[in-house]
Design brief:
It holds the Pfam family Hydrolase_like. This is HAD-superfamily class IIA hydrolase, TIGR01459. With about 290 residues, the chain is α/β, with parallel strands linked by helices. The protein has 9 helices and 14 strands. The strands form 3 sheets. Strands 1-14-13-12-2-3-4 form a 7-stranded parallel sheet, with helices on both faces. Strands 6-5-7-8-11 form a 5-stranded parallel sheet, with helices on one face. It has a two-stranded antiparallel ribbon with strand order 9-10. Helix 1 links the parallel strand 2 and strand 3. The longest helix has 15 residues.
C-alpha cells in the first residue's frame, strides 16, 4: 500500500535526487503552483538535486523559456531534461531518416531548431514525427484519421516526441502527441517514444544528476515525482526507482473531492485498477 504523505519534507534524508514532473505537479500550463515551487527550493536548500523531467516535445532551452514565462525561477532546479531532448538524440543519429513529415503546432518549432532533418510532404517522408496536435484546443486524434491512414499505408514509422496522452491546462484536458501515437498503433502502425515511461529520458536524467552532484548517484537515492500513472509511475517502476505519486494532478477527480487530500480507499482503487504501486502519494506537491 502506498504511504500518503503531507509534505515532501517527510522524506528528508532518504533521497539525493528528484526526477520531478512539470505539468500537473509544478504548474498547470498557466501558472506555477507556489507550494510546489517552495518545496523544490527547500529540497535544494537541504542539499538535494532537482532534475525537472518533462514529456514536453521541446528541447531543454525551450522548456526553460516556458518556465520563465510562467514565473518559475532557476532556483527551483539543477537541470531540465525533456522528451524532446531524448527524441532529438535518436533523430540526429539518423534513426528516422533525413526527410520527415511533421505533425505539430507552431509552439513546437524549437524541436526543429537542432533537428538534422528536412520536413517534407507525407508522400516524400521517411518517417513521421509528431510533437502534438496542430490545434490542441480544438482537435482530437480523430481529426488526423486520414493522415494516419496514409502514413500507415506507406508503412512509415511514427515518432511520438511526447508520450503523454493528455495534459491539463488550467481546467481543460487537451490531447498530446501520445494520443496520435495510440491511434496509429490501433491501425497497426509502428511507433516509438523516448520520454517517460521509456528508458532514454531516465538515462539522460541520471547523467544530468551526476553532473550536478559531481558523482554517480545510486538508483536507491533517486525519487521520481509525477501525476501520470502510465508515464511517471510506470517509468519509475521499470527503472527500479522509487516514486511519489501526485494524486491531485491528472487523477484528482477520481482520488477524492479535495485534490490536496486523496481519500485512501479511492486512491487504492485507482492505483490497483492501473496496476500502479508508488511508494508514496501526496495530494499536491508541497
Amino acid at each position: 500500500m502506498t504511504q500518503i504523505i503531507e509534505s515532501l519534507s517527510e522524506l528528508d534524508g532518504r533521497y539525493d535526487v528528484l526526477f520531478c514532473d512539470l505539468w500537473g505537479c509544478v504548474h498547470d500550463g498557466r501558472k506555477v503552483y507556489p507550494a510546489a515551487a517552495e518545496a523544490l527550493r527547500a529540497y535544494r536548500a537541504r542539499g538535494g538535486i532537482v532534475v525537472l523531467m518533462t514529456n514536453a516535445p521541446r528541447p531543454e532551452f525551450s522548456v526553460a523559456r516556458h518556465l520563465e514565462r510562467l514565473g518559475a525561477t532557476e532556483d527551483m532546479r539543477d537541470a531540465i531534461v525533456s522528451s524532446g531532448d531524448s527524441a532529438l538524440l535518436s533523430v540526429n543519429a539518423g534513426d528516422w531518416g533525413r526527410r520527415v513529415f511533421h505533425i505539430g503546432a507552431a509552439k513546437d518549432e524549437a524541436f526543429f531548431e537542432t533537428a538534422q532533418v528536412e520536413r517534407v510532404s507525407l508522400d516524400e517522408a521517411d518517417s513521421v514525427i509528431v510533437t502534438g496536435l496542430v490545434d490542441d484546443h480544438a482537435e482530437t486524434p480523430d481529426d488526423y484519421a486520414d493522415q494516419l491512414a496514409a502514413a500507415r499505408a506507406r508503412g512509415l514509422r511514427l515518432l511520438s516526441a511526447n508520450p503523454d496522452i493528455h495534459v491539463d491546462v488550467g481546467e481543460r484536458r487537451l490531447w498530446c502527441a501520445g494520443g496520435l501515437a495510440q491511434a496509429y498503433e490501433a491501425l497497426g502502425g509502428e511507433t516509438e517514444a523516448y520520454g517517460k515511461p521509456h528508458a532514454p529520458i531516465y538515462a539522460l536524467g541520471r547523467r544530468l544528476a551526476a553532473e550536478a552532484a559531481g558523482r554517480e548517484i545510486d538508483d536507491s537515492r533517486i525519487l521520481c515525482v509525477g501525476d501520470g500513472v502510465g508515464t511517471d509511475i510506470a517509468g519509475a517502476a521499470a527503472q527500479g526507482l522509487d516514486a511519489l505519486f501526485v494524486s491531485g494532478g491528472l487523477a484528482a477527480s477520481v482520488c477524492g473531492e479535495d485534490p490536496e487530500h486523496p481519500v485512501p480507499s479511492r486512491l487504492k482503487a485507482f492505483l490497483d485498477a492501473n496496476h500502479a504501486a508508488p511508494q508514496y502519494t501526496i495530494g499536491r506537491l508541497r
